[in-house]
Amino acid sequence: MTLDGFESGRNARITGVDWTSLAEDEAKRLQALGIDEGAEVAILHRGVFGGRDPIAMRLGNMTVAIRRVHAHAISVEAV
């Protein structure tokens, strides 16, 4: 399952990231934030308009907002 389809409020562990589907600068930014295999995340809420962008997620002690296309490249499993 990818992060964009994961249920809000539940914890997940990142099992993989399709780095090739992202622009190089976007991939580097996500990696700098700590988005990588093994990281635990939770969807806090989604945008209310159109494509439901951005997606706000908890990553450690941070709240990070990412675009839906980025969340689609992130595979997760429930924990």
Automatic annotation (TrEMBL):
InterPro entries: Fe-transptr_FeoA-like, FeoA, FeoA_core_dom, Transcriptional_repressor_C. The keyword Iron applies. GO terms for molecular function: transition metal ion binding. Keywords: Iron. Transmembrane segments: none annotated. Pfam families: FeoA. Residues 1-78 form the Ferrous iron transporter FeoA-like domain. PANTHER family: FE(2+) TRANSPORT PROTEIN A. This is Ferrous iron transport protein A.
